[in-house]
Amino acid sequence: MEQIAQKDIVISIDNVSYDYRSNSDEFVARGVKGVSLSIERGDFCVLLGRNGSGKSTLAKLLNGFIVPDSGTVLVNGIDTKNDDRIYDIRSKVGMVFQNPDNQMVASIIEDDLAFGPENLGVPREEIEERITWALETVNMSEHRKRSPNKLSGGQKQRIAIASVLSMLPEILILDESTAMLDPKGRAEVMETAMRLNKDKGMTVILITHYMDEAVGADKVFVLSEGELIGQGTPREIFRDRELIKRAYLELPIASSISLELIEKGYDIPFALTDEELVEGICKLK
Ligand SMILES: Nc1ncnc2c1ncn2[C@@H]1O[C@H](COP(=O)(O)OP(=O)(O)OP(=O)(O)O)[C@@H](O)[C@H]1O
Ligand SMILES: [Mg+2]
């Protein structure tokens, strides 16, 4: 019998809404509204949206930190409303946040990495192995016995990623984890996330408001005022000027220059990166 290839959906969100409410249950703000999307295992996804568009709310819904007012969030087929499985979900969905300094709990890096697995009751020898592996993965092995204080921002974020890796997550969510970094630090963290995805097959969800960080993604989701207003490949999303405008996003310079040239009648392809733009211009007759 012919086999039909089944997509391996790791996250499935169906018509999810969440509002922030006061202690007296009064409406404070819309978090997300009517969001439906699914993420395939091994994908590198980018969640794009301007400030307050609901990105972090969606991230918190994904690891069960909050549960939807309506709709369902399934992680590996498990409903985040299922209290008995919440530990499973939290350990499968690792989150790295914006400020690296708020994510360090110990004064020695290896202790910081041990903290998560210790809480999960992982045996000592296995914790040692996980620390070694996690530090190698983010290229920080030589810092194992050091204090995190002396590290650069990019190195601190790589340690924060390693701390999450020590829990062996299946999904890594980076919530604006590059926002406070200089360009070098940003590049280090992006490279680490890309490598985890390509080499280890980890599902990565990168949250950002920088469109240029979405260039290499398999899939881009665009949020605006709590609603999912677009999804597609970077090329599909970047070419949709109406969508970009509605989301108040800014195209990377290479893309907007190429669009202007195309509109002026030059025969060059739409460019996502500087390299593509230069190549297009060089081929002009
Ligand atoms: N704890 C909270 N209490 C009340 N309102 C909140 C809370 N957290 C977020 N909000 C509101 O919910 C909406 C969505 O916020 P969210 O933090 O999800 O957006 P975001 O896209 O992550 O923004 P940013 O780019 O600033 O991180 C915003 O209007 C925000 O003000
Ligand atoms: Mg946020």
Structural features, described:
With 285 residues, the protein is of the alpha/beta class. It has a single domain (9-251), classed as 3-Layer(aba) Sandwich (Rossmann fold). The protein contains ten helices and ten strands. The strands form two sheets. Strands 6-7-8-3-9-10 form a six-stranded mixed sheet, sandwiched between helices. A four-stranded antiparallel sheet has the order 2-1-4-5, with helices on one face. Strand 4 (70-75) and strand 5 (78-79) form a beta hairpin. Helix 5 (153-165) runs parallel beside helix 6. The chain is globular and about 65 Å long. 41% of the residues are buried. Bound molecules: adenosine-5'-triphosphate (ATP) and magnesium ion (MG). Residues 55-56, 175-176 line the site of magnesium ion (MG).
Beta percentage is 15-25%
Strand arrangement in the largest pleated sheet: 6-7-8-3-9-10
Distance between the termini: 54 Å
How many individual domains? 1
Topology summary:
Blueprint: E1 9-21, E2 27-40, E3 44-48, H1 55-62, E4 70-75, E5 78-79, H2 86-92, E6 93-96, H3 109-119, H4 124-137, H5 153-165, E7 171-175, H6 183-200, E8 203-208, E9 219-224, E10 227-232, H7 234-239, H8 241-246, H9 253-263, H10 274-282
Parallel strand pairs: 3-8, 3-9, 6-7, 7-8
Antiparallel strand pairs: 1-2, 1-4, 4-5, 9-10
The gist of it:
With 285 residues, the protein is of the alpha/beta class. The chain contains ten helices and ten strands. Helix 9 packs parallel to helix 10.
Highlighted features:
285 residues; Rossmann fold; 24% strand; 4-stranded antiparallel β-sheet; 6-stranded mixed β-sheet; alpha/beta; binds magnesium ion; globular; binds adenosine-5'-triphosphate
